[in-house]
Amino acid sequence: MTTTTYITRARLEVLFGAPEIARLEKDGAGIEATLGTVNSEVDSYVRVARPNGLAEVPPALEQAAADIARFRLQKSNPLPVVETRWKAAVAYLLAVAAGKVALPAIPDDPATPEDESTLDNGVWFTTLPWNPKGWM
Q: For residues 35 and 51, what is the distance between their CA atoms, to the nearest angstrom?
């Protein structure tokens, strides 16, 4: 199983600015290794809800991955706002894993049929009201 890429260095630079990412790298942060760990971590939450993964990464998942990466890159002395955003990202991922967050469907995913024709098991239901003494 391949890990999905939720965040890249290029996207970190767009989201937080190239100077900040360069400063973190100068401080000894292993950006590529950290991104690999973060992508694996995010994927572990997503695959609880979607075992087959996602066809595309929604912006909210990318932002959560970016916030986690930024927190990890600041090592032992993260800024308070970075720590707050990290906590929010983890809470969001917990909601993803619990199925409380709507994720985009994979087009050929049988768990999310485009129409209900694949759900036909020969049982018919009605919306007519039922009365124990007979039909109304």
A: 21
| In-domain check, residue 19 | yes
The model's confidence at residue 37, banded by pLDDT at 50, 70 and 90, is very high
Compare 135 and 9 and report the one with higher pLDDT.
9
- Do residues 55 and 106 touch, judged by C-beta distance below 8 A? yes
pLDDT greater at residue 97 or residue 103: 97
Tell me, what amino acid is at 92? Answer: Y
User: Residue 62: pLDDT above 50?
Assistant: yes
Task: Give φ, ψ of 89 to 5 degrees.
Answer: -65, -40
Does the residue 136 lie in any domain? Answer: no
Structure tokens at 85: 């955003």
User: How many domains are there within the chain?
Assistant: 1
Give 130's contacts (C-beta < 8 A, 6+ positions apart).
Answer: none
